[in-house]
Each structure stands twice: as C-alpha cells, then as structure tokens.
Design a protein that fits this description.
The protein is mostly beta strands. It has 1 helix and 6 strands, in the order E-H-E-E-E-E-E. The chain is globular. The two termini are 23 Å apart. This is Phage tail-collar fiber family protein.
Length: 113
C-alpha cells in the first residue's frame, strides 16, 4: 500500500512543459482519468504513461491556480450520476495528444456509487 499520497508530473509532462516554455507554445490539458489501481494503492512514478487500471475518463471542466499555493493547479471535472461501482485510487491528467502529463494517488478510496 502507498504510504504517501501526492501528484507528480510525468517525464513526458515535464518535457512538454519545458518545450512549451522554450518555444512559446501552449500545453492543452483536456481530459482527466480515474483508476482503481487494480484494487491496490501504489506510488505513482514519473515514468508512467498510463494509469494502472483506468475506469473512467472525461473532459476537464475547469483549470485554475490554487488560491493558497500558486505552484499548484486545481483541475475539475464532472462525473455523471450513473457512473460508478469502483473506488478511485489514482488520477491522471492528459493533454490533447493523449499524453499523461500528471499522475496522482488518493488518500482514501473515493467511491462513486
């Protein structure tokens, strides 16, 4: 079981952010994916390109800088009420090219339904 709960940029995410900064382009974060970690907690790594076991994916509804920590971003999505039957143990943020930019694990399993 993971003992720490956090989100990190993936290696691909770091490279894309660096390229966007250097070349003045925009990184378009478009989708948020949720996974159940195949029933187990784990510590996400920078080398990951996918979630361990993705169970849901949807469009990002809003992105903002955290009001208390300007180094953090807050990403929101809407999950339909008829979606569920799984525990959320992992989350991933993807860009418009389908690359996993950031990945995180959750402190407690969040049950959808």
């Amino acid at each position: 079981m993971a003992e720490q709960f956090y989100s990190i940029l993936t290696s691909i995410g770091k490279a894309k952010i660096a390229n966007a900064s250097i070349f003045g382009t925009k990184l378009n974060l478009t989708t948020l994916a949720l996974g159940d970690g195949s029933g187990k907690y784990y510590n996400p790594t920078e080398s990951q390109e996918v979630l361990v076991n993705e169970v849901w994916r949807g469009n990002i509804g809003a992105i903002a800088t955290d009001s208390e920590n300007s180094n953090w971003i807050v990403i929101e999505t809407m999950i339909a009420g008829n979606v569920g039957g799984f525990f959320i143990r992992e989350v991933g943020v993807f860009d418009d090219e389908g690359s996993l930019i950031a990945i995180g694990n959750t402190q407690k399993p969040i049950n959808q339904l």
